[in-house]
Amino acid sequence: MRARSTFARQCLAASLAAALFVGAAARVSAAPYQGRDRINLVIGYEAGGGYDVYGRFVARFLGSHIPGEPQIVPQNMPGAGSLRAANYIYNVAPKDGTALGTLSQSIPMMQLLGTPGILFDADKFSWIGRVSDVDTVLGVWSTAGIDSVDDLKRKQIAVAVGGALSGSELYVMFLNKLVGTKIHPVAGYSGKTAQLAMERGEIDGSFSLLLNQAKVQNPQWFSEHKLKVLVQIGIERRASISNVPTLTELGTSDDDRKILAAVSGGDILGRTFVGPPGMDPERFMLLRKGFDAMLHDPEVLAAAEKQKLDINYLSGDATQQLVHQYQALSPATVERIKAIVAEADGKRK
Q1: CA distance 101 to 39
Q2: How far is 120 from 334, CA to CA, in rounded Å?
Q3: Structure pTM?
Q4: Nearest alpha carbon to residue 32 among 279, 283, 276, 280
Q5: What is the CATH number of domain 6-133+270-335?
């Protein structure tokens, strides 16, 4: 692990202090859980956002799918893009199965890029599983005169992205460098303002679009062919847009495809749940099995549909494998990723 910077030490100090806020879990014996047991679910973001919504949804249903039906108590611990919560779970939280967390989907990529404040190895968290990925797509407005990725190599267009080093900005950055597109990223638009800006002709497209959300909020975009979806993020193509390539497919070499898969990893990881490293093995397996049972329960799936929450379950083992892909990258590939980010960051400044 990298040497601890002053900022990193401050993050750990904040995490230690946060332990008082979260409250120590009751001392319990080894598995199985008992009805009096309590599991603290640390949510790495403030109340009201997507991570909070999914975190509280899991807290509502997970306990009833675990033997002993322990109480799941959600508690928000925002700070530093969830690094505060990640450092707490990794370094402070009890390992007896009474502490879980939901953290930024970008945690592995942040570690790869050497983001200050990281005091963990993402590969060593106890990965419980994924509730859903994030169905990000590149959508281009019909008036832009772009019908394919090849068109993006010939004509420059302005596309809305999130903040610096957000997933959507990274997608544009690596598409331009590895695929040869000429996309001009425009930061400063939220999801809703980007949609309005496309309709007004202020920008040509957005890489901050969530497919299912856009279909619900703006069905006419698709029925009237106002929006062209050119790239999707995912392990494989979604059935509803099976003619649209994934970002990874666009790589022209094996190394480029590995890089694009790593860049896509955040949205593929999506809303995941973790425990600290070295968790009690019996409780760890109970949590994984309970998580699996919860996300195959028809009543839970019906509740998610009513709440308009996407569910795309991935097991703990499969989630762990997604995270491990970052560790499996060669040093030369990691250096290429860092160099591309540094080059694009330098141009922005």
Answers
A1: 10
A2: 18
A3: 0.85
A4: 283
A5: 3.40.190.150
